[in-house]
Design goal:
It is built from 4 helices and 14 strands. The protein is α/β, with parallel strands linked by helices. The chain has a 4-stranded parallel β-sheet with strand order 1-4-9-12, with no helix packed on it. A hairpin with a 2-residue loop joins strand 7 and strand 8 (166-171).
């Protein structure tokens, strides 16, 4: 970029190599975290917030470098590649701010579900949802082993949700096994907890060969008779 702007160096030359190494370290740590099952439910394979924060800082710093270098340019022409670079930096910051850094608290925002295919092993650190109709984990197909290390908790109640193109009424159940769904093994440490009124922690309409919950099932929102 300095060549196209006819400047002798970037805005802060000392940042160049630091940003390169920090970005590569982020990629390595992020890949390892995904392989270990650490991700958030905002998007598929989305990094946990410390890594997202690191990515955000690096991208903003790169954007400052790019804009600062362009403002120092001595070239009369503004190359198309510079427009692309500017647009990429601005859009990445905007996308990270709305999609990755902001929490997912919308209605019917299910954390994990699967309508097609299967999974042999899925491991989660913790699963939480906040919207009405936002199921924690929903299983609609045969799956293998599901492990949750620190429990499943939902905060929403009953609401409308789009399911396979059809609007349906769903409750924010922590663990839902739908008709046609089954699991070879489910292991949950930390329990199942719902906070919405009359929302059960679990609904089961499919088979589970091996099922272990440490921490119990709690319907904190009430609406059920005590046993």
């Amino acid at each position: 970029m300095p060549n196209t702007d006819l400047v002798d160096r970037a805005l802060v030359q000392a940042w160049v190599w630091w940003l390169l190494w920090i970005w590569n370290a982020f990629l390595v740590l992020g890949s390892l975290s995904l392989c270990m099952g650490y991700m958030v439910g905002v998007e598929y394979t989305e990094y946990e917030w410390p890594l997202n924060l690191l990515r955000f800082i690096v991208v903003v710093t790169v954007a400052i470098q790019v804009i600062g270098t362009i403002l120092r340019r001595r070239a009369s022409r503004f190359y198309v590649s510079l427009w692309y670079t500017l647009a990429a930096g601005i859009w990445t910051i905007f996308n990270l701010s709305l999609g990755a850094v902001s929490p997912n608290i919308g209605a019917a925002g299910r954390s994990q579900n699967g309508y097609t295919g299967t999974v042999n092993l899925a491991e989660f650190d913790r699963v939480t949802t906040h919207g009405d109709g936002a199921v924690g984990i929903q299983i609609s197909r045969p799956v293998g082993r599901i492990v949750v290390r620190r429990g499943i908790e939902t905060f929403g109640g009953t609401g409308q949700s789009l399911v396979k193109g059809v609007v349906m009424t769903l409750s924010a159940v922590a663990l839902s096994i739908k008709p046609g769904g089954s699991a070879r093994e489910i292991e949950i440490n930390g329990g199942l907890k719902t906070n919405g009124s009359a929302v059960p922690p679990i609904e089961q309409h499919g088979a589970i060969e091996s099922f272990r919950i440490a921490g119990g099932c709690v319907a904190a929102g009430g609406g059920f008779d005590k046993i």
